[in-house]
TrEMBL record:
InterPro entries for this protein: RlmKL-like_Mtase, RlmKL-like_Mtase_CS, RlmL_1st, SAM-dependent_MTases_sf, THUMP_dom
One family name in Pfam for this protein: RlmL_1st
Highest taxon above the source species: Bacteria
Descriptive protein name: THUMP domain-containing protein
Domain THUMP, first and last residues per copy: 46-157
Cross-referenced Gene3D superfamilies: 3.30.2130.30, Vaccinia Virus protein VP39
Alphabetical UniProt keywords: Methyltransferase, RNA-binding, Transferase
SUPFAM superfamilies: S-adenosyl-L-methionine-dependent methyltransferases (SSF53335)
């Protein structure tokens, strides 16, 4: 039996609860939510499963050593004292990144450099050979986290951020991050039991994430590589078994996922990405201006979108957000509409009262995810709830 060990899944602000729930459903133990991260326990197979199956995780770290640190020399000495031979060959390659929350240390690049020096010097002193740095495809990616005087050294099991799912070949100006898109859809409570629409779909991220949620498809199946595949204890048979068990849990989806965009280039990119994700059976992308559309049929519709904001496009924000409100009110009865915006002033111009507001960040911008409920049978839009 593989032994359990502690891991930390990093996430975006506001997604800690979602990630905890995902970890519970996957079968993690000792789950404890922090800020932008969730700690948990599991074995090696579970580490593979977490990387393949979590929608709202950005990274899965495996802490291997924690100690207090009083100076740069102290950091160097304690890292030098560790047994690195169990993780890396003397001729291997490594990369180090650091995050610092401390008045003692202020420069994360310098701390990363100091860590790398200690590891390389240890190998050179004990074997006569030294590992090289490879920032793109290292055999071992190491994360140093210093919080005040507490230092945690972790192995990064993911490598590239887990938002890089592998299906997105084409993007528009400012594509939404895949982890953010999945989290927004999950926060909106969509469960695949109604039609789904993104009326400003850009390169199709929201549509693809919605389809993967509806069909319970593991989000990172298409990734080219995880960092743990270069580890000394990499177990390809175990990985394939985990992959197979996750694929066995996919389910049918009997509704429609529809995307609109008024830019032909965005429609073409979205279609390419949907095809890359092999989800053409579930997603339809059309060249439409949302403000000139109306809902087809009486079925309930679930809408989640990311309207363009001032930094991206030269548009009249007041008019644009007023048009969103008018279109929803007049043309989309029986719709739960959710969208994220970083333009908090513009929300006042929607002309509808949101039934929910959730505080998030879109990249570094403070944002709100808002919900508007458009009831059936009223052109005036009874949007109170």
């Amino acid at each position: 039996m593989e032994e359990n060990f502690k891991m930390v899944a990093k996430t975006l602000f506001g997604f800690e609860e979602l990630l905890s729930k995902e970890l519970t459903q996957l079968g993690a133990q000792d789950i404890k939510a922090g800020v932008r991260n969730v700690a948990f326990s599991g074995d090696k197979g579970f580490m593979y499963k977490a990387n393949l199956g979590l929608r709202t995780a950005v990274k899965i770290l495996k802490p291997i050593h924690t100690f207090t640190v009083s100076s740069e020399q102290d950091l160097y000495d304690k890292i030098y004292a560790m047994d690195w031979s169990q993780y890396l060959k003397p001729t291997g390659t490594l990369a180090v990144d650091a995050t610092i929350h401390s008045d003692l240390f202020t420069h994360s690049l310098y701390i990363a450099q100091k860590t790398k020096d200690a590891i390389v010097d240890k190998f050179r002193d004990t074997t006569g050979k030294r590992p090289n740095v490879d920032l793109k495809f290292p055999d071992l990616k190491i994360n140093v986290h210093i919080d005040r005087r507490q230092c945690t050294i972790s192995l990064d099991s993911s490598g590239d951020s887990l938002h890089k799912r592998g299906y997105k070949m084409a993007t528009n100006i400012a594509p939404i991050n895949e982890v953010l898109a999945a989290g927004l859809i999950m926060l909106s409570g969509w469960d695949g039991q109604t039609d789904f629409m993104d009326p400003m779909c850009g390169s199709g991220t929201m549509l693809i994430e919605a389809a993967m949620i509806a069909c319970n498809i593991p989000p990172n199946l298409m990734r080219k590589e995880f960092a743990f595949e270069r580890w000394q204890d990499w177990d390809v048979e175990l990985f394939e078994k985990i992959e197979e068990s996750l694929l066995g849990k996919t389910r049918d989806f009997h509704h429609k996922i529809i995307g609109y965009d008024k830019a032909p280039s965005a429609v073409s990119k979205a279609k390419d990405n949907v095809k890359n994700a092999q989800l053409e059976d579930f997603i339809e992308v059309k060249h439409e201006d949302f403000f000139k559309t109306q809902k087809g049929g009486d079925e309930k519709l679930h809408m989640v979108f990311n309207p363009p904001y001032g930094e991206r496009l030269n548009i009249d924000m007041q008019e644009f957000y007023a048009s969103i409100g008018d279109t929803l009110k007049q043309n989309y009865p029986g719709t739960d509409a959710w969208f994220i915006t970083s333009n908090l002033d513009a929300l006042k111009h929607v002309g509808l009262r949101p039934s929910r507001k959730i505080h998030l960040f879109n990249a570094k911008l403070e944002a709100r995810l808002v919900k508007y409920v458009m009831y059936e049978g009223s052109k005036k839009g009874k949007y109170m709830k």
